[in-house]
Amino acid sequence: MADPHAIVSVLTESRVFPPPEDFSRRARIRGMQDYQRLWDEAAKDPDTYWGDRAREELYWKEPFQTVLDWKPPHARWFVEGKTNLAYNCLDRHLPKLKDKPAILFEGEPGDRRGITYGELSQQVNRLANGLKSLGVKKGDRVGIYLPMVPEAAVAMLACARLGAVHSVVFGGFSAEALQDRMKDAGAKVLLTADGGWRKGAVVPLMKNVEAALPNAPSIEKVVVLTRTGDGKLPEGPKFLAWDALVKGQSDVCEPEWVESEHPLFILYTSGSTGKPKGVLHTTAGYAVMASLTTRWVFDLRDDDVYWCTADVGWVTGHSYVVYGPLMNGVTTIIYEGAPTQPGPDRFWDIIERYKATILYTAPTAIRAFMRLGDEPVKKHDLTSLRLLGSVGEPINPEAWMWYREVIGGGRCPVVDTWWQTETGSIMISPLPGATPTKPGSATFPLPGIHAEILDRDGKRVPKGQGGLLFVTKPWPSMLRTVYGDPERYVNTYFSELPGMYFTGDGARTDADGYVWLMGRVDDVVNVAGHRLGTAEVESALVAHPKVSEAAVVGRPDDLKGTALVAFVTLKQGNPPSDALKKELAVHVGKEIGAIARPDEIRFAEGLPKTRSGKIMRRLLRDVAAGKQSSQDTTTLEDLNVLAALRQNDE
Ligand code: 6R9
Question: What positions does the domain AMP-binding enzyme C-terminal occupy (predicted)?
Answer without folding.
Answer: 536-614
